[in-house]
Amino acid sequence: MLRAKEAGPPLDAIRALVTGSARRTDLLRVQADALRSRIAAAQTSLALVECALGCAHEDVTRCPHFRQPTGATGRAGAE
Fold first, then answer.
1. How far, in Å, CA of 7 to CA of 31, rounded?
2. 75 within domain boundaries
3. Of 7, 24, 75, 79, which one's alpha carbon is 20 to 30 angstroms from that of 33?
């Protein structure tokens, strides 16, 4: 039960998982999609932080590498 809670699904989904509900596969697919989405968002955030850490620009918002992943320019390398 605790491991299931760590994965993040709501309690009603955990209940369906541990009771052998016929909805288990569907619930797991929904949870997997939600986790993939959260992971993708976290990876984007990490890329921005790592870009800013390695940037030599005094104003990181003027760096084309930093601006690219944020969508601030609309295309890579534009200023």
1. 9
2. no
3. 75
Domain contains 65: yes
Instruction: Write out the two tokens for 56.
Output: 């030599």
Distance CA 56, CA 34 (A): 36
Q: pTM value?
A: 0.60
pLDDT at residue 34 above 50?
yes
Q: Are 39 and 30 in contact (CB under 8 A)?
A: no
User: Rounded distance, CA 39 to CA 55, Å?
Assistant: 24
Cα-trace Rg, the chain: 20
Give me the number of domains the chain comprises: 1
- Supply the range of the domain harboring residue 51: 2-70
In a domain, 30, yes or no: yes
